[in-house]
Amino acid sequence: MSESLIPDGQDPLTPFPGFNFFVAFHPPGGSFAPFANLPDRLVGGFSEVTGLEATMEPKVIKEGGRNYGPLQRAGTVSFSTVVLKRGVVSSRHLWAWWSLFAGGDDAPNGGWAPASSRTDVSILLNGPAVTLGWQLKNAMPIKFRVADLNAKGTEVAIEEIHLAHEGLNMVRV
Predict the structure, then answer these.
(1) For residue 80, what is the DSSP state?
(2) Residue 25 — left, alpha, or beta (φ > 0 → left; ψ -120 to 50 → alpha)?
(3) Distance CA 15, CA 11 (A)
(4) What domains can you pick out in the chain, each with its CATH number?
C-alpha cells in the first residue's frame, strides 16, 4: 500500500475494527429476479461473514543435483465458501436467489438458474477515513440454513447463506 493513498492524519498502522462492515450485491446488468424490487446496489445487514480466504497450492519441482530441497512454484488458487449470517427477517430475496439454483417450489424456470443469476458481492470494512474490503466474483448460493428453533432459548433466529465464487479481490473505496 502506498503512503500517498492514506489521508492526512490517518495512521496506516491502526487496524480496522472487525464489527463495522456491510455487504452489497452487484448483479450483472443491474438486477435479476430475486432482487428485482430492490435497489440496484442491495445492501444486506449481516451480523457475521466468514470464509474470506484464498489458498494457493504450490507446485513442487524436484530437480536433479539440487539437494537442498525442491523448487516451489505458484500453483492453482482455490477459494473457501463464504458464509453470510443475519437475523431472520421477513424479506425473502436471499431465499429466492437460492431457489433459482436449488429448484425450490417457488423457483422460476424449474430451478434452472441462468448465468445472469450469479452476482458479485462486496464485503466492505469501514474505518475512520478509509473503507476497504473484498469482492467475490461471480458468486452463487450453494447452501441456505436457518438455525435451530428453540422455544426455551432467547437468541435471535439466524439464517445463513453460503456462497461459492470464482475470485477474491481486495478493493479500496
Answers:
(1) P
(2) beta
(3) 9
(4) 18-52+80-172 (2.30.110.20)
Task: Report the mean per-residue pLDDT for the chain.
Answer: 79
Q: How far apart are CA 122 and CA 101, in angstroms?
A: 21
d(CA 169, CA 133) in angstroms, rounded, equals 8
Distance CA 160, CA 47 (A): 10
* Residue 116 contacts residue 26 (beta carbons within 8 Å): no
pLDDT beyond 60 at 151:
yes
> What are the cell numbers at 155?
437468541
**Of 14, 20, 17, 81, which is closest to residue 47 (Cα–Cα)?**
20
**Residue 1 — pLDDT band, cuts 50, 70, 90?**
very low
Q: Tens of pLDDT along 26-49?
A: 776 665 555 555 544 445 578 899
In 3D, which of 131, 125, 143, 128 has the Cα closest to residue 84?
143
Q: Which residues contact residue 18 at a Cβ distance below 8 angstroms, ignoring those fewer than 6 apart?
A: 125
Distance set, CA 131 to CA 8, 14, 108, 126, 128 (Å): 15, 13, 37, 5, 8
Name the region of 47 (left: φ>0; alpha: ψ -120 to 50; beta: rest): alpha
